[in-house]
User: Which sequence fits this backbone?
């Protein structure tokens, strides 16, 4: 028998729950499906939010031949076989799940078939396509972002199962599923088939190993470290500690976290509290020598210190401004008076002439002599 999630999967757009910003009336995917508009696109969003369902509905609307592959196990030969296969006059739509698992060479191989229209590609990914899909392929696809399903959407999906779920069990499912309908339905089906009912107790028993959804190479990784840094930048120590806890619980490399703290100490705190760099380096060293689980305490110590420290980005901003001038003007001539006259010829050319140890005159190249980088 098919899994519960497959049995109640919507067959038409009107039955899709959630993602109203994409499939609601007048929204892009609703219009495309209604007008049978042929184009390639990528669906980016968390697991269990409707990517496969939308792909199938779209292909059905086009009356196209749908081919479904998983990039985990598929390769170039699978793509080649689809291209040469007789589709009996129908358009060919390729739904490539987990497209981020295709390496650059595989994506390069797929590109010309998408470009010349032999295949209409629907890619599905839980990872940021900007990092995982090659630019030429990405430029030929629209990207639609799917959101985690809301409590109301999950409730509507649960009702379709006709299974009796008590409110406390539903609340438990909400926390566990984290916006993933397939995850919620799988847990419900497991509890029902094993124990004959869906309660908090049977759901807990059916759960083998709770874990956080966190891919150390994916979007969750980048989103969490970004939130972590921005919380410290805003001096919100509680928020920074929360995002630290998420990374620690997910098993994030402590040296990755500590390395970002060292950068933060110079970039965001800088001259306001120079000891921040000393603390951040000490945290990094402690993580190197101690490791988990104890180094989490040291990380928390460092985060609390950095978040509460005064902030000053003047040194960072000065560097970026100077780099901009280097890129704009190239290697401008260095004033002769601060060049060492290490040969007789250099002395004759007046290298070092006029240099005074505590000179107030600008040492910048002539073109930039009045520039102020450090404000």
Assistant:
């Amino acid at each position: 028998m098919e899994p519960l999630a497959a049995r109640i999967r919507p067959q038409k757009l009107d039955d899709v729950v959630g993602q109203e910003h994409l499939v609601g009336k007048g929204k892009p995917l609703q219009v495309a499906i209604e007008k049978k508009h042929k184009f390639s696109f990528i669906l980016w969003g968390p697991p269990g939010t409707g990517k496969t369902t939308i792909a199938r509905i779209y292909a059905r609307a086009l009356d196209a031949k749908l081919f479904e592959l998983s990039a985990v196990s598929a390769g170039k030969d699978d793509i080649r076989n689809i291209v040469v296969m007789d589709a009996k006059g129908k358009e060919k739509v390729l739904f490539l799940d987990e497209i981020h698992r295709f390496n650059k060479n595989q994506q390069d191989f797929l590109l010309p078939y998408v470009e010349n229209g032999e295949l209409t590609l629907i890619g599905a990914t839980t990872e940021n396509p900007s990092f995982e899909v090659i630019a030429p392929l990405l430029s030929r696809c629209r990207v639609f972002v799917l959101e985690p399903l809301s409590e109301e959407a999950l409730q509507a999906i649960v009702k379709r199962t006709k299974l009796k779920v008590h409110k406390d069990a539903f609340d438990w499912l909400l926390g566990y599923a984290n916006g993933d309908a397939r995850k919620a339905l799988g847990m419900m089906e497991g509890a029902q088939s094993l124990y004959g009912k869906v309660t908090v107790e049977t759901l807990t028993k059916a759960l083998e190993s709770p874990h956080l959804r966190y891919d150390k190479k994916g979007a969750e990784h980048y989103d969490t470290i970004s939130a972590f840094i921005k919380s410290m930048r805003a001096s919100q120590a509680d928020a920074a500690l929360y995002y630290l806890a998420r990374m620690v619980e997910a098993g994030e490399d402590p040296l990755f976290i500590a390395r970002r703290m060292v950068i933060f100490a110079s970039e965001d705190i800088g001259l306001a509290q120079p000891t921040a760099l000393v603390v951040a380096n000490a945290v990094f060293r402690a993580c190197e020598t101690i490791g988990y689980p104890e180094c989490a305490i040291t990380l928390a110590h460092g985060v609390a210190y950095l978040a509460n420290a005064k902030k000053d980005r003047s040194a960072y901003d000065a560097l970026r401004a100077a780099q901009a001038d280097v890129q704009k003007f190239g290697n401008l001539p260095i004033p002769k008076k601060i060049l060492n006259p290490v040969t007789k010829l250099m002395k004759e050319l007046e290298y070092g002439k006029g240099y005074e140890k505590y000179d107030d005159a600008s040492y910048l190249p002539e073109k930039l002599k009045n520039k102020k980088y450090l404000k």
Notes: The mean pLDDT is 91. DSSP finds 19 helices and five strands in the chain. The chain has four domains: 19-145, 151-206, 219-308, 315-368. The longest helix spans residues 254-269.
